[in-house]
Design a protein that fits this description.
This protein is α+β, with helices and mostly antiparallel strands and about 270 residues long. The strands form three sheets. A six-stranded antiparallel sheet has the order 2-1-5-6-7-8. Strands 3-4 form a two-stranded antiparallel ribbon. The protein starts with 5 loop residues before the first helix and ends in an 8-residue tail after the last helix. Bound molecules: flavin mononucleotide. Flavin mononucleotide (FMN) binds next to helix 5.
């Protein structure tokens, strides 16, 4: 066989492919547990972020276990699911929003008129996270998601234990343009959510991300958040997804229970 025969070239190419695929598969398999762990810790970090709990140099898992308690709620009734009803997919530890939204057993189709967040299907259940300080529930953290301009944005909104005042806001996954829609990650903008009230005294949903800057003299300033400049579509997406999740198809029924003074965490 001559050194530059077609057969030899193909054999060498196949050999290189085989060695590379073995190396890549071995790396993928051996790194999977580390990746899973990092993904899980990243999610915990984001929940702590939303709850405004600082975690610098802390053992994330330990801090999370100390401060946070999770429950599954049924969105349409706003009630907390009993642990007896947990399944392989339906428990705070296993809950995966994307998988739940696609699973026919656990999702519900949204009509175009109701689908303000543009997600098409919504899980029937969601995980909520309670933040405890000195044994008392201080905040509740709610997962939220919906369409921006380029991507579906996933995040959390934290409210006080009465379910009225925003205590934190963050996105942990999105594909908006850095410097434009990507300014949803801007720490100053995220901080500007804190203290805003989601509803008025009568329980009407009032929170709104407006196109421009909030005028502090505006009677509704306490419900309004500045829009992101040069990112009108992302801004509209954030407004729509927040209003969707805090409304009747999202956490509305659950929030009504909080507003009525029920203490669903007193189990
Ligand atoms: C490369 C590129 C990336 C953009 N990324 C975003 C984005 O992430 N979010 C957004 O709302 N608009 C984005 N825009 C701008 C929109 O196309 C649109 O012009 C903008 O939302 C209008 O906002 P304005 O009225 O504040 O100028 C992008 C535009 C370009 C050319």
């Amino acid at each position: 066989m001559s050194t530059d025969s077609t057969r030899k070239t193909i054999m060498v190419a196949l050999g290189v492919c085989l060695v590379c695929s073995v190396l890549v598969s071995t790396a993928a398999v051996s790194l999977k547990s580390i990746q899973d762990r990092n993904r899980r810790l990243d999610k915990l970090r984001n929940i702590l972020d939303a709850g405004n709990i600082s975690y610098a140099a802390a053992d994330i898992q330990k801090l999370f276990n100390e401060k946070i308690e999770a429950d599954i709620i049924e969105l349409q009734s706003g009630t907390i699911l009993s642990e007896d009803d947990y399944t392989d997919l339906l428990s705070p530890e296993k809950f995966d929003i994307k998988a739940m939204a696609k699973n026919r057993r656990y999702n519900r189709n949204l009509t175009a008129g109701a689908d303000l967040a543009q997600i098409r299907q919504i899980p029937k259940y969601m995980t909520v996270y309670w933040v405890r300080e000195a044994g008392r529930v201080e905040k509740v953290i709610l997962p939220i998601y919906g369409k921006g301009l380029w991507s579906t944005m996933y995040g959390f909104i934290a409210l006080d234990s009465n379910g009225v005042t925003v205590q934190g806001f963050t996105f942990y996954e999105h594909g908006e343009t850095p410097g434009l829609g990507g300014e949803v990650d801007n720490p100053a903008w995220k901080r500007s959510w804190i203290g805003k009230r989601i509803c008025d005294a009568a329980g009407n949903l009032k929170i709104e991300v407006i196109k421009n800057k909030v005028n502090p003299a505006d009677a509704n300033a306490v419900h309004r958040i500045d829009g992101l400049s040069g990112a009108t579509i992302t801004t509209r997406g954030v407004n729509d997804l927040v209003r969707f999740w805090l409304g009747e198809n999202g956490y509305g029924h659950f929030l009504e229970r909080l507003w009525e003074g029920e203490s669903p965490w007193a189990k």
